[in-house]
Amino acid sequence: MTDTPPQIPEDVAAMSFEQALAELEKIVGRLEQGEVPLEESIAIYERGEALKNHCETLLKRAELRVEKIQARADGTAASTEAFDPS
């Protein structure tokens, strides 16, 4: 079993974090209401997975950028604490 990353549709990959999160929240809301037909539920769940994966990728990139910013000019770490956005 290979551990390959899931494919993200092009339209999702082009979204900003905020756009993807907003659409994901709408999908979650629709699924929580329970009024979506089964086939549509499966389709929007799959899209939600793609949106979630895209958001996670963007967050990881942002985290790496913050870590890079925290590094000193000489290459030593200025801080080893994890980034806390709150």
From TrEMBL:
GO cellular component, as recorded: cytosol; exodeoxyribonuclease VII complex
Q: Where in the cell is it found?
A: Cytoplasm
Q: Which residues form the signal peptide?
A: none
Q: Which EC numbers characterise this protein's activity in its record?
A: 3.1.11.6
Matching entries from SUPFAM superfamilies are given as:
XseB-like
InterPro entries on file: Exonuc_VII_S, Exonuc_VII_ssu_sf
Tell me where on the tree of life, at the top rank, the source sits.
Bacteria
Which keywords does this Swiss-Prot/TrEMBL entry list? Cytoplasm, Exonuclease, Hydrolase, Nuclease
Keyword Transport among record annotations = no
Q: Indicate the family of this protein.
A: Belongs to the XseB family.
Task: List the HAMAP family hit by this protein, alphabetically.
Answer: Exonuc_7_S
The protein's job, in short, is: Bidirectionally degrades single-stranded DNA into large acid-insoluble oligonucleotides, which are then degraded further into small acid-soluble oligonucleotides.
Q: Enumerate the PANTHER family for this protein.
A: EXODEOXYRIBONUCLEASE 7 SMALL SUBUNIT
The molecule here is called Exodeoxyribonuclease 7 small subunit
Which gene holds the coding sequence for this protein? xseB
